[in-house]
């Protein structure tokens, strides 16, 4: 594990990362999803793509990259753009799982790999809608502290800055960003994914002109059991 301090908009960020095959000339950058970390991605993919320099990153606020700042998806992309520039990365291939898929898309790599990416707004369950409505009511009358009772257990463990970040990014509609992506994209999905539905994956594939869509029998973390096939498809897709 290594760490690099970078400055973006006069704020310091300490980024934890791992390199695999450090002398390779072509880069394979991997971004984890919300609440995850680089280790999950490294455990899945590090045994493959031997001719590529793997760059596994803990995004700020996750894993071993702490931050006290409130962030947005575009700011995440700006931070990682600077970080990759300092590593002299040519952004050949960037893979992003779930939330990391949105950040990867903004980085505009030569080849984009999406793994059950977030970015398509889906219909919320009725009980979730009720919690949102109640929270908005209490916020409107100055009793925002009460809304903590309606947060999920995962959200309640977040720091205040990361909860603010979560609110910034959770309901983003990324359809225009996917449509604007002009390079080649490989889109991989779990057919039993309940976090980002299979229909969302097909929608993203329809928005990105130069894309290929492949699905597997699996859930939101389908890639863990299918990494070998995914990597072979990546190799075959790149001249």
From TrEMBL:
Residues 28-154 form the AB hydrolase-1 domain. InterPro entries: AB_hydrolase_1, AB_hydrolase_fold, AB_hydrolase_sf. One of its GO terms (molecular function) is hydrolase activity. The keyword Transferase does not apply. The keyword Transmembrane helix does not apply. Keywords: Hydrolase. This is Alpha/beta hydrolase. It comes from Arcobacter roscoffensis.
């Amino acid at each position: 594990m290594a760490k690099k301090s970078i400055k973006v908009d006069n704020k310091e960020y300490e980024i934890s990362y791992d390199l695999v095959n450090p002398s390779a000339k072509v880069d394979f950058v991997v971004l984890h999803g919300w609440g995850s970390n680089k280790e999950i991605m490294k455990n899945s993919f590090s045994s493959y793509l031997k001719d590529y320099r793997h760059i596994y990153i803990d995004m700020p606020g996750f894993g071993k990259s702490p931050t006290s700042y409130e962030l947005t998806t575009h700011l995440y992309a700006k931070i990682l753009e600077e970080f990759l520039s300092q590593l002299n990365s040519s952004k050949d291939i960037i893979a992003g799982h779930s939330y990391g898929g949105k950040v990867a898309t903004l980085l505009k790599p030569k080849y984009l790999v999406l793994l059950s990416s977030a970015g398509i707004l889906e219909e919320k369950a009725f009980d979730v809608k009720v919690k949102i409505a109640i929270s908005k009511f209490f916020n409107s009358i100055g009793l925002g502290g009460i809304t903590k009772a309606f947060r999920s257990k995962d959200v309640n463990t977040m720091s205040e800055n990361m909860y603010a970040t979560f609110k910034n990014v959770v309901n983003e509609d990324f359809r225009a960003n996917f449509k604007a992506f002009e390079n080649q994209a490989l889109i991989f999905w779990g057919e039993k994914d309940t976090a980002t539905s299979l229909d969302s994956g097909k929608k993203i594939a329809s928005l990105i002109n130069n894309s290929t869509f492949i699905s597997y029998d699996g859930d939101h973390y389908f890639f863990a059991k299918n990494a070998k096939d995914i990597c072979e498809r990546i190799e075959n897709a790149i001249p």
